[in-house]
Amino acid sequence: MDLKSVIRDVPDFPQPGVIFKDITPLLQSTSAFKYALDILTERYQGERVDDVVAIEARGFIFGAPLALRLNAGFVPVRKKGKLPHKTVGIEYGLEYGSEAVELHEDGVLPGKRVLIVDDVLATGGTAAAAKSLVEQLGGHVIGLAFIIELSFLNGRRRLPGVDLFSVIEYHTPDES
Ligand code: AMP
Question: What is the 19 CA–ligand 1 centroid distance (Å)?
Answer without folding.
Answer: 10
